[in-house]
Amino acid sequence: MKPFTTPYAFLTERLRGRGARSAWIEYLITATCGIGNMLFGYDQGVMGSLLTGPSFEATFPSISNGNSTLQGFAVAVYELGCAAGALTVIISGDKFGRRLTVMVGELIIIIGAILQASSFDLAQLIVGRIVAGFGNGMAAAILPTWNGECSRSKNRGRAVMWQLNINLFGIALAYWVDYGLAASSSTSNNGWAWRLPLGLQSAFSAVTIVMALFLPESPRVLMRNGKVDEARDVVDMLSLEEDPATRAAEVCTVVSLIENALQEDSQSDSKWQAIFTQGRPRFFQRLVLSAFVMCMYQLTGVNLITYYVPVIFQNTLKFSRHLSLLMSGFVGLEFWIASFIPIPLIDRLGRRPLLLFGAVGQCVSMAVLAATVAYPGNKACGYVSVVCVFIFNTVCAIGTNGLAFLLPVELTPLQTRGTSVAISTGFFWLCNFFVVMISPVLISRIQYGTYILWACTNLSFIPVIYFFIPETRKASLEDIDVLFETNPKWLIGPQSKKKMAKITQDASLLTDAVLHGRKESAPTVDMVENAPSK
């Protein structure tokens, strides 16, 4: 694992071949990806609370003088940096690997955080947000892929859900950091009230870099770059088999399967030619579905709530600044707690039921929120509005939050996964920019109509999810390939659960036969996660 052989070996050599203890490598990869993603959540929560602080307003008066467009741009420009960073992963994700791309992205975040925390004018703040966004875009585009490729099929959903759970902890942490420093921001000359929260971003990135030093690269990336021995070593350490002979058989099987998949990749058109054509693997359809899921998450209105809930409480519902920050803290805390709910459900109930639940619940809560915000002077309506915000976050945490990052990894094929996920993530950040940019403008101009708009977008997602999004529960990535190859149509959703169950059953029987020496060849699979789970 050059150039980080020593720290990498220190951890992995103590865990390999120890059965259940070997699973800790997988858990640590998930934890590292979660901490790396925490900055995404932290930045979502931190800026909204800072915008109404006296010390922040004194330093950046141009944002605070009723200029909702400039306010939206200063917050949303971060997402433009994220979009640019995500697109660089098209090259770096495969060429330099998931692990190194993550570490470079986190290093760039540290630079951006320092620029923001040391700002004395709006231009430097904006540059710092662009730089930090660029690094976060790189990291966020590759972290779910690294996590998913090193997780087993029966654990993949839970692994990515845990990663997004830590992301939401970042939102909650940001709200409470802002609330804790609110008392010291009562005077305009205390810059620490906003500098410290912005500078704290670098701490998460530093922890992610250190943890990544000790963890392995995706074996698929290693083999793609000709590092077969290192890939074999990673497959060995991720195996849960304690018996050396059984583990060796599993390693040989999985490595040969990856080789077969890469051979098919080399015989196909270039990924840029393939990705915009259908072909037997349905490349373009899977890119569209991947991008849709990510854009759908942004267009639910979740980041209207996440970024601007303190502004909504203070300016729309006329709460005091202290109460607005306190309520925002509980909103973030509840969002994080609710994200524990889908972890045991994602691989039991499946992806489609949770997505449909999310779309319906978000539509209803936004509609009720619109009706109550229309009467800002009514105390009862104010209470109902607060309840709707909590309900929306709960439904979103259960239904769409984690799946927006899990499904793009699952839906895209081996040949184009890195490129497809990077493009989808780029669209994700552009939609994020759009939502964050227009939200303060909409709130100031059409007021309760803002929430009607997001209720309508959520309503429109329901038929799209039902007819077009397939069920991928407990399926290996290769099983998902088979589903698309054997069902060459766009309306794949309604029958996907039954068809996927048959595909996974056949694949499991054949893989089990291979591992026990009853077959000489195996089906083509694309990742370590295709090996049987314990």
Automatic annotation (TrEMBL):
Range of residues in the leader sequence: none
Coarse class of the protein's main subcellular location:
membrane
The answer, when asked if Nucleotide-binding is one of the entry's keywords, is no
| InterPro entries xrefs | MFS_dom, MFS_sugar_transport-like, MFS_Sugar_Transporters, MFS_trans_sf, Sugar/inositol_transpt
Q: Name one GO molecular function term.
A: carbohydrate:proton symporter activity
Keywords in UniProt for this one?
Membrane, Transmembrane, Transmembrane helix, Transport
Q: Which residues form the Major facilitator superfamily (MFS) profile domain?
A: 29-473
Q: Which GO terms describe its cellular component?
A: membrane
Q: Where are the transmembrane segments?
A: 24-42, 70-93, 100-120, 126-147, 159-177, 197-215, 287-310, 322-342, 354-377, 383-409, 421-442, 448-469
- Enumerate the NCBIfam families for this protein: SP
What family does the Swiss-Prot or TrEMBL record give for this protein? Answer: Belongs to the major facilitator superfamily. Sugar transporter (TC 2.A.1.1) family.
Name of this chain's protein = Cytochrome P450 family protein
